[in-house]
Specification:
Helix content is about 70%, strand content about 5%. The chain is an all-alpha fold. It has a domain at about 270-485.
Length: about 475
């Protein structure tokens, strides 16, 4: 089953350009959505029925095996991408009518799905590292898709940061492989005698691995690539900033922490203090940078960098409650943030406006888009009873329950960030509803109203789920808590 879930989007995307579809082709959209939906259905069936997902591809050399296996943590990430990718593709069909080279775009977009499945289901550190690097290479053509100076510069910066920093993760891979611990096992793979002999070195390698894999989650000092990547088409930034790349970074950090090095040997050491400090600084500083950012998509990108480090804070607490909060926020933030990017893209397509100062009064011509944005913005702030409150509350409780000064500091950073989040998101909402349209925009016609059903349906479904999870989050949280080692 797993081999089909990986190969179907890879082959489907690779073969798509052979059709040479015209730029406005309904058949291309049907074929792309069919491949994506079938992959998602197969993943869902396997997860709900408990069908074993395991596939060993190739032993490159002793200790380095390309193998895939789905466990509890994988199922959380796989479930998220299986739900969101078909909706993001449907949104993209409408958005890409206003862009060039849609054949190439949807080819890379579909291949990216397969590579993300590889990251989520990697059976060992060697496989995860290869899939992690492949995800960078596959998303590069999506970032530079427009082929203008801004997008090419964004792709260059993205490649420099992500590929360069990933070399730090490679050091951890080589070291763990040499010590006989490249597999994933709950609680870590290295025996106590190895830690006794090489404890400080291994903790230093863990910090490097945290930074190396965390660069995709935009941790400081590597955060700036994420707002720069907003030059890509909105369907790309929605997946980059809400689902595939950034969540892959956070997911890999959680894997390395809990299944390679092990929290027992890291908790209470200088290594834990270092990574927790990095994550907390990212949470606060990126929220502050979002407040001062006027470009709407870049503001949302800084918000993503901050919220991804909420996940890393939960991982770095190295408690079961912290990991529960981290995985809960990985799911809930992905849902909330993709709607915000969808709304920003709809505004751009229908009005050509990109800046916060230009969207005042937009609730009148675009009531549906502004309503979806507003609901998810309130959720991201963490205001009850919406779902953003649920994951943030779990993280805050986990930080306080550690009883350590570092945990209290982390909790304070989460609270400060939530206040800043209210400033940078609710200011957009109030501009929508409580400020008049500018003189330039008052004469708008029907072409500036809400987008078509292909954009509205994904936003409506995900926004509804954001609300539902606020009132009925117990099944999700209970499921995630049952997966924590």
């Amino acid at each position: 089953m797993l081999i089909v879930c990986i190969l179907l989007p890879l082959l489907g995307g690779a073969l798509l350009p052979l059709g040479r579809f015209p730029e406005r082709s309904r058949l291309r959209g049907i074929l792309t959505e069919a491949v994506v939906c079938l992959t998602s259905v197969l993943i869902a069936v396997a997860l709900f029925r408990g069908i074993p997902l395991e596939w060993t591809l190739w032993e490159v050399f002793p200790g380095a095996v390309i193998a895939f296996r789905c466990d509890g943590m994988s199922s959380v990430f796989l479930g998220l991408i299986a739900f969101l990718w078909p909706l993001a593709s449907l949104y993209g069909f409408s958005y890409m009518e206003h862009e060039h080279r849609p054949n190439a775009f949807f080819a890379w977009y579909t291949i990216c799905y397969g590579i993300t499945v590889c990251v989520a289901s990697a059976g060992n550190l060697f496989t995860m590292y290869l899939a992690f690097e492949c995800l960078t290479l596959i998303t590069l053509p999506l970032v530079w898709h427009k082929w203008n100076e801004e997008s090419v510069a964004a792709a260059r910066k993205y490649a420099l940061y992500v590929l360069g920093a990933a070399a730090l993760g490679f050091l951890a891979l080589v070291s763990l492989t040499a010590l006989g611990g490249a597999d994933f096992r709950p609680g870590g793979v290295l025996p106590a005698e190895i830690w006794a002999a090489h404890g400080d070195l291994l903790r230093a390698l863990y910090v490097l691995a945290f930074l190396g894999f965390g660069v995709k989650a935009a941790v400081l000092p590597f955060s700036s690539w994420l707002p720069t990547a907003s030059a890509a088409p909105t369907p790309v930034t929605a997946l980059l900033h809400a689902v595939a790349v950034v969540n892959a970074g956070a997911f890999c950090v959680a894997r390395v922490t809990w299944f390679s090095f092990g929290p027992e040997m890291l908790a209470g050491t200088w290594a834990q203090t270092a990574v927790l400090l990095i994550a907390c600084c990212t949470v606060v500083i990126c929220s502050a940078l979002a407040v001062r950012e006027n470009h709407l998509k870049r503001r949302l990108a800084w918000s993503t960098a901050s919220n991804l480090s909420y996940i890393l804070v939960g991982v770095a607490l190295m408690t079961g409650e912290g990991l529960t909060g981290a995985l809960s926020h990985l799911v809930i933030h992905g849902l909330m943030k993709i709607v915000l990017f969808f709304a920003a893209g709809a505004i751009l397509v229908r009005s050509g406006k990109e800046y916060v100062s230009e969207v005042r009064g937009f609730a009148r011509p675009m009531p549906f888009v502004c309503a979806c944005f507003s609901v998810c913005a309130v959720a991201v702030v963490g205001i009850p009873p919406l779902s953003g409150f649920v994951s943030k509350w779990i993280l805050l409780e986990a930080a306080i329950h550690t009883g350590r000064a570092s945990g209290i500091f982390a909790g304070a950073c989460l609270i400060i960030s939530s206040v800043l989040t209210a400033v940078y998101l609710l200011s957009v909402v109030t501009a929508f509803y409580f400020r008049p349209l500018s003189e330039e925009n008052r004469a708008w016609g029907a072409e500036h109203h809400d987008p078509d059903l292909r954009m509205k349906l994904p936003m409506a479904l995900i926004t509804a789920l954001v609300v539902i999870l606020g009132f009925w989050s117990e099944p999700l949280v209970t499921f995630i808590r049952s997966l924590v080692p």
